[in-house]
Amino acid sequence: MHLAVIATLILSLFTNPVSDSFSDTFADPSVIRGQDGYWYSYGTSDPLREGEKVLHNLPIARSSDLVNWTYVSDAFGPDNLPSYAAPGSLFWAPDIRYLDGRYVMYFTVTNTATTPANWDYSIGAATAPTPTGPWTHIDAPVVAPRPSGNSYWNTIDPAQFTDVDGRKYLYFGGFFGGLWVTELSADGLRATGQPQQVAIDNKFEGAYVVRHDGYYYLLGSSANCCAGPTTGYSVLAGRSTSPRGPFVDREGVPLLASRAGGTPVLDQNGNRFIGTGHHAQLTDLSGQDWMLYHAIDRSDPFLDEPYGINERPMLLDRLDWIDGWPTVRAGAGPSEQSRQTPVTRGVVNDRFAGDLSGWRNTAGWTVQEGHVRGQGTLISRKSLGGDVRVETDLKTDKSAGIRLGGTTAVVSRDGLTLTSGGASRTVALPGGAATWHNLAVTVKGRTITAEVTEARLRDPQASVTVTGSANGPIGLVADGSADFDNVSAAPLFKAVTKAVPTPRTGRLLDADEFNGPLDSRWTWVRQDAAARTEEGVLRWPVEGADLVGAANKASVLLREAPKGDYVVETKVTLDLGEDAVRNYQQAGLVAYASDDDFARLSQVAIWNTRQVEYGRELTFADRLSYGGNIVGPPARTTWLRLAHHVDPANGEHEFRAGSSRDGKTWTWGGVWTFPKDTAVRLGLVAHGGAQPAVNADFDYVRVYRGA
C-alpha cells in the first residue's frame, strides 16, 4: 500500500474515549459549535483526573475536530455561583444552547437555598457572550424544587428545545418523578405555564429532544448511571408529532405507560465500554449526525478508590437514522476505535481570519472582527458538484443567504425562502435572523433542502424543501448589509440505511416444553417444592427471596449450556398488574455461574413501572456489585432471549438480551460478559416478593444454535 494511503487511513482513525487527552472522567457531556468555529463540550462537576480530588464546576473543553479536545476552564469559579445554590451544592448535567444572540447554559443544582432540605434539586441557568463565559447567573431557578412528601422530585438533567414556531421548551426530570416538559419565556430563562409529564418515573433521566423528518424524538437514559463495573445505562427513544407528546416507541408503546415503552438507541455491546448514556447530539459539516455520551471502562470503573466516583469519560460515535429511528452505528453500539471521523473542514472552509483571497466579487465586502460583512454576491473560487451540504452562520436585518448555482436560500423578515429554477417556497422564521443563525443547504439529487437553526443542534426553526438543480458556484448573497462566518461546503454524507444484524435462531438444540415432569437435565439450586409442571407450563409461584446481595435465598432452576454460539428462549406469563407498586417481583432467564456471578433477564415490577431488566451481579474489589440494563417493554406474556457468543479475540462469553411482546418482533438490548474460563449454566428464576401471590408460568425453554 502506498505510504500516502496508509497515512490517510491513520489520520482518519480516532480512538474512544475522545476525552482522554484532558480528563479521566467527563460525564453528562453537552456540545455546541461556537461562533468562533470551535466545538465546545461541557461536563458534570467532577475531578478531571485520578488523584486530583478537587471538583471542577462544570468543566469546559474545546476542539476543532470533535476528536481532539483540550480543557479550557470551569464555567463557575468559587466566587461565581448561583445565589440560590445552598453551600456545598453540586452542579450536574449542563445543557448548552445559543439563544437570541447569547449562550445559555442550563444545569442541575443539587441543593437549593430556598428550602431547608438536602437534595432539593432545581434547574438553574446562566448566560454568556462566548462559549467560555463570563457566565452571568439568573437570580432564581428556571425550575424550582418540586416537593413530594418528605423529599423532592428529581428536577435534574435539563435539555432545551426551540420549535419551528419559536416557542422554547425545557425538558427535565429523572427516575423519581419521571420526565417533564415546561414551556419557557421568550428569553428562555423562566418557566411558564404548567409543566407536563412526558415519560414515566423509574425508567428515564437525561432527556434530549430533537426534530427529524417532522417528528419530535425524546431520547432518555435508562437504568443506572453509576454502578461501577455493573453499570447498565443505555439510551432509549420515543417520538411524537408534538413537542409535548405523547411519545411512543417503535411498537407504539407510550413512554408514559406502566409497561413503559422505549426503542433502543445506544447499548453496551460487549467491548470495554458499559453504561453508555446521557448524551448530546450534533451535526457535522457533511450533514452526518453524531452522538457525544459518557461510558464506563469496565476494567477501570472508578475515578480513584473502588465505590467512589464513577469514572465516566466522553465518547463520540456516528448516529444513524434507520426506518425513522435513531441508532448509534446502525445498532452496533459504542466503538473503541472508529474509521469514520466527523467532517469538520469542508472543501470550502472559511472563518474569515485573514483576507478574501479565496473569493471573487469582493467589492463591498470586508473582513472585520473575525467575520465578513458586505452586500451583493461574494463567490467562492472553489466549487463542489454532486450531492453537497453548504452552510454559513449569518445575521441580517434585511435579506441574506446562500447561492448554489441557480438555487438561492435566503432569510429575511418574511422567513426562509428557497428558490430553484421555477420552484420557490417560503416558510416562517420566528424572530428573523437579526442575531447569528446557521443556514444550511443540502442537495441530494434533485431534492434541495434549506434549514435554519441557532446552533445546529437538531432543532430547526425553519425548514423548506424544493425540487430543482443546484450545480454551480457557491456564493454568499446579501440585499443590504449582512454578516457571514464559518462558511463551508462539503460532500453530503452517505446515509446508513441498513441496521447491523441482530441475533437469530438456527436449528433447535435442546428444549423442555413442560408437557410432563421436569426432564432429568434440570438441576436445582435451593429447590422450590412449590414449582410444578401442569397444564403444559412450569407454574412457579414467585418467591419472597432474591439472588441480588449476599443472602442468596432464591431458588434457581438450571441446565447445562451447549458449546459455541446459541440462543436460549422462554415464554413467561406473569401478571404484575399495572401502576401499583410490586417491588421487585420478577421472572425470567438467568445465565448463572454462581450465586454471586450471574446475568438475569426478567420481566420485573420496579415501583409503578413494568420493565424488562437485564441485570448483572459480580464481585469487584471484594464487594458485590449489581446493576441493570433495560430491554424492550414487557406484556403480561413476554418472550425472552439470551444470545450467547464467544468473543474470538479474548474468549469471553457475551450474552445479549432480547425481549418481545408477541414472539415475533424482538427488541435487542445490551451485552453482559463473563470471563473466558467461566462455566455458565442456563436457567429460570421467579422471585423478588411473594406478596401479592402470583404465578410465573413458563411455556417452554428452547435452546437454538446461533445463526
Automatic annotation (TrEMBL):
Q: Which Pfam families match?
A: GH43_C2, Glyco_hydro_43
Keyword terms, alphabetized: Glycosidase, Hydrolase
Query: Which residue numbers delimit the Beta-xylosidase C-terminal Concanavalin A-like domain?
Result: 512-703
Q: Does the keyword Hydrolase apply?
A: yes
Q: Which residues form the signal peptide?
A: none
Superkingdom as given in the UniProt entry: Bacteria
* Matches recorded under CDD domains: GH43_ABN-like
Entry's InterPro entries?
A: GH43_arabinanases, GH43_C2, Glyco_hydro_43
Q: Which PANTHER family match?
A: ARABINAN ENDO-1,5-ALPHA-L-ARABINOSIDASE, ARABINAN ENDO-1,5-ALPHA-L-ARABINOSIDASE A-RELATED
Protein name, UniProt field: Family 43 glycosylhydrolase
Q: Whose protein is this, by species? A: Nonomuraea guangzhouensis
